[in-house]
Amino acid sequence: RFVITSSLLIFSILFALRIDEYIKISYWLVFLPLFIWKVLVIVGACTGVFVWCKNGEQNRTIRTPDNDCQALVIYFLMHILILTFELLTCDKLENHLEVRWIICFIPLLICTLLSFISCLWSLKVQRNFLIQGFIAANGLFFLFFPFRLDYFITWRYVIVFVPVWISLCVALLFIIAKFILAIIYQCSHRVLSNYRELSTITEAIIYVILFIPFSIFSILLVDRLDHEDNDQIQKLSFTVIAIPLWIALIAWLTFS
Question: Is 194 exposed, middle or buried (0-12, 13-18, 19+ CB in 10 A)?
Fold first, then answer.
């Protein structure tokens, strides 16, 4: 979690500054934190699979891969696909290629399908699927957004971001449920541990701290994109728009 959050934070800072032309560095340097994150995950997954296979040979038994090994393979494939998407996107931005955005997003769309399958598998084996769930829930956004960039559709960005709004609404319901659960613990006549009660309240507060800045960032970004071609309206810079996102990432980094 620390590596992922740190990589996203550094990337978002560099990317916003690069788009606003406050800095003029290669997009390969801008995307470097994301590349490092993917390489670390891929190396870790390969190492884990290698260790599992080696232990299997030592035991001289033929057995199907256990859940941990299957999870490593899934994470490996997902990060390969995301890395491919990032490489295509970075190459397009750096070299101003005439390739359509939907081509760059194809690996991400495949990753969305894989994430959906992974969610079903994780439910079956009772594993955590937070990252896969996030990717799968925004699958339509990963389809609408490149279509909008390529002008295959001319919807306003506020409509393109509908899957994101739905995800935020689900997150809001989750936060409300956390607070309700905390209130129930507070008012319950049963003997409950103070640690459990405090943990629930703390989690709810953390999610609020993350939810509010990210929601503000999404709203500001959509407003900027919808008015991108209107020169009569004074627009916020992407650096200013990204500040709430940085606050959310720093908060997540702190609590992780």
Answer: exposed
